[in-house]
Design a protein that fits this description.
39% strand, 4 domains, Elongation Factor Tu (Ef-tu), domain 3, conserved putative lor/sdh protein from methanococcus maripaludis s2 fold
C-alpha cells in the first residue's frame, strides 16, 4: 500500500509531460499557418438584372415563296430533251433543283413527230375543205344568177345554197382542227411561266410522260411570305399593311415586311388565324422552308421585372418552404457569401423573377450556390 501513491504520482507526471508536448505542437502549427479553417469555395457571380416585359409575343413562321407552280405536260409522249446547265464541275447536266430559270424558257419537251404529223394532216383537211368550199361558192353564185332569170327552180337553188353553207362550215371546222393540232405541237415544249428557281424535277429523258404529268416545281422568290398562326386573343393586333420585322436563326439581321393577309376564320383543327407577312427578297437570302420568328404587338412597355438565373436560387436554410440566394460582399478584401431570403415569381426561360428581397445590381452567386452556406468565404472565378 505505501507504494501506490508513488505510482499515481508518476503517471500524473507522464500525463503532464504529454499535454505539454501537445500544446507546444499546436502552438508551432499555428505559427506556421496550419489551421482547421475550410478553403474558399470557387463560385461565379453576376449582378441582379431586369427583364423588360412588353405586350408583344413571339411566333414562329414558315418562309414560303410568293408564287409556286407545279409545271406539268399538256401533251403526252416520251421526254426527248431536258434543258441543260453547266454544273460546278464544269460538265453539262440536266436542269435540277437549285437552278435558276427565266420566264418563257423551254425547260423540256416530248417527242414532236406524232404531233407534227397531226398538224400536216389538219392542213391537208383544211386544203380539201377550202377546195370544196370554193367550188360550192361558184355553184352558188351561178345558181343565184340563174334564179334571177327564172332558169333554175327554187329547189335546185336551195340545194346549191345548202352545199355552199356546208362547205363554209367545213372550212371553219378544218381551221379549228389545225389550230388544235398546232397548239398540241407547241405544248410538246414545256416553258417556264415565271423567273425563279427550280425546287424539284420529277422527269428524266426517255421517260413516258402522260398528259398532266408533273415535270417541275418552280418558285418565284423575289418576294417571300412568312406565314404563322395567332390565337383569337391576338389576331386583332395583326393589321393589314402594318410593318413587321422577322428574324431567322441562320441569317444575321432583321428582314422588314408588311402584313398582307389575315385569315377571316380560324383553322378548324388548330383554332388559330393565319397571318401572312410579305418580305422583299431581291438578294434571295431567304429560302423556302426556313423558320422565322417575329413579335406581334410589341412596343408598349408594361413593366420591369427583377430576374436572376435559376441556378442562383436554393432552398432556404431558415424556412423549409422558402428560397434564398447568396449575395457576395467584399469586406477587408475577402469575398463572403451571405444568404438572403427571397420571394420568387414566374420562370422566364432560364431566368426566374424575384418579387422581394433583392435589388438590381447586387452581386449574387450564380454557379456554386449549392456548395456554400451563410458566411462562407468564396473565391470568385470568371
Amino acid at each position: 500500500m505505501p507504494n501506490t501513491p508513488k505510482r499515481n504520482l508518476g503517471n500524473l507526471g507522464r500525463l503532464n509531460s504529454s499535454a505539454a508536448l501537445l500544446i507546444t505542437f499546436l502552438a508551432a502549427a499555428c505559427e506556421h499557418g496550419v489551421t482547421s479553417a475550410n478553403p474558399a469555395t470557387p463560385v461565379r457571380i453576376s449582378p441582379v438584372g431586369h427583364y423588360e416585359e412588353n405586350s408583344g409575343l413571339r411566333y414562329s413562321a414558315n418562309i414560303e415563296a410568293l408564287t409556286q407552280v407545279n409545271l406539268a405536260f399538256k401533251s403526252g409522249g416520251y421526254v426527248e430533251h431536258i434543258v441543260e446547265r453547266r454544273g460546278s464541275d464544269g460538265r453539262m447536266r440536266a436542269l435540277q433543283a437549285g437552278d435558276r430559270v427565266t420566264q418563257g424558257e423551254v425547260l423540256a419537251h416530248v417527242r414532236e413527230s406524232e404531233y407534227a404529223d397531226r398538224v400536216n394532216s389538219a392542213k391537208a383537211q383544211l386544203d380539201q375543205a377550202q377546195a370544196n368550199y370554193d367550188k360550192a361558192k361558184l355553184d352558188f353564185e351561178r345558181a343565184s344568177n340563174l334564179l334571177k332569170s327564172d332558169s333554175l327552180t327554187k329547189a335546185q337553188f336551195d340545194a346549191t345554197k345548202a352545199a355552199y353553207d356546208s362547205g363554209a362550215a367545213a372550212v371553219e371546222n378544218a381551221k379549228a382542227a389545225l389550230e388544235q393540232a398546232k397548239t398540241a405541237l407547241s405544248d410538246c415544249s414545256l416553258r417556264s411561266p415565271l423567273t425563279g428557281w427550280v425546287l424539284q424535277r420529277t422527269v428524266e429523258v426517255g421517260a413516258l410522260a402522260g398528259t398532266g404529268t408533273q415535270a417541275f416545281v418552280l418558285a418565284d422568290t423575289h418576294l417571300v411570305k412568312a406565314v404563322f398562326g395567332v390565337p383569337d386573343t391576338r389576331v386583332t393586333a395583326a393589321k393589314l399593311g402594318a410593318p413587321l420585322a422577322i428574324t431567322t436563326s441562320s441569317l444575321v439581321g432583321e428582314f422588314q415586311g408588311r402584313i398582307t393577309a389575315v385569315s377571316p376564320s380560324a383553322d378548324p383543327k388548330s383554332r388559330v388565324f393565319s397571318v401572312e407577312v410579305t418580305i422583299p427578297n431581291s438578294d434571295d437570302r431567304l429560302k423556302s422552308g426556313m423558320i422565322a420568328t417575329q413579335t406581334l404587338g410589341a412596343g408598349k412597355l408594361e413593366q420591369l421585372t427583377t430576374v436572376v438565373p435559376l441556378s442562383a436560387v436554393v432552398r432556404s436554410s431558415q424556412r423549409a418552404d422558402g428560397f434564398s440566394v447568396f449575395v457576395v460582399s467584399d469586406p477587408s478584401g475577402k469575398s463572403v457569401a451571405h444568404e438572403r431570403a427571397v420571394e420568387i415569381g414566374d420562370t422566364l426561360g432560364n431566368m426566374i423573377s424575384v418579387t422581394k428581397g433583392l435589388n438590381v445590381g447586387e452581386p449574387i452567386v450564380i454557379t456554386g450556390a449549392t456548395l456554400i452556406k451563410d458566411g462562407d468565404q468564396v473565391k470568385v472565378i470568371p
